[in-house]
Each structure stands twice: as structure tokens, then as C-alpha cells.
């Protein structure tokens, strides 16, 4: 039964690590941008958009498609930065792992 106790201990440690990581991700703030910084998006570590900043020069009612594309690109940039941050945190431990609630 010793192996069972070790397994429980490992599961508890994994749950504690997941809880710490989720708390850190909730507090994390990262920015993504596009158009040379004309559109900036701030997201948390769970990829929730917290803020959107637009340079007045990029707002053109005759070219809404470009503005929409820049917003999407900035959001994708910020999301990629969250993924990079998370990959760095998990390192080789997280390689190929899908932890529910984190991805």
C-alpha cells in the first residue's frame, strides 16, 4: 500500500501546483499589439481581454475592415504571449500535458 500513499502525495502536490498556477495566471497581465502599436490589447493569463487601446489615427470609418483585422491581430498576439509565458512556467514538465482549466 506504500505506492498508493505516494500516488496520493503526488496528486496533492499536482493539485497545489495547479492552484498556484491558476492564481498566477489570473493575476498576470500581458499586452499584445498590432499595426506598429496602433492597437494594443491587455489580457490576463486566462486570455480574457481586459483593455483595448486604439490610436486615433487607426480609426477610419471608411476602413472598418482594417481596424477589425488589427484588433484581431492584437488579441492573437496577446494570446500567444500568454501561451509562451505558460510554456516557460511549465517547462519540460508541461510538454504535451493538457491540464484541465489551463488550456
Short description:
The chain is 51% helix and 17% strand.
* Share of helical residues: 40-55%
Q: Assign the CATH topology.
A: Ybab, Chain: A
Rounded mean pLDDT score: 87
In N-to-C order, the SSE pattern is HEEEH
What is the CATH architecture assignment?
2-Layer Sandwich
How many domains, as an integer?
1
Helix/strand/pairing class, anyone?
alpha+beta
Distance between the termini: 34 Å
What percent of residues are in strands?
15-25%
Gyration radius (Cα, Å) is 19 Å
Unreliable segments (pLDDT under 50, ≥5 consecutive)?
none
Summed up, the helix count is 2
The H-level CATH homologous superfamily, spelled out, is: Nucleoid-associated protein YbaB-like domain
Query: Which strands sit side by side, in order, in the main sheet?
Result: 1-2-3
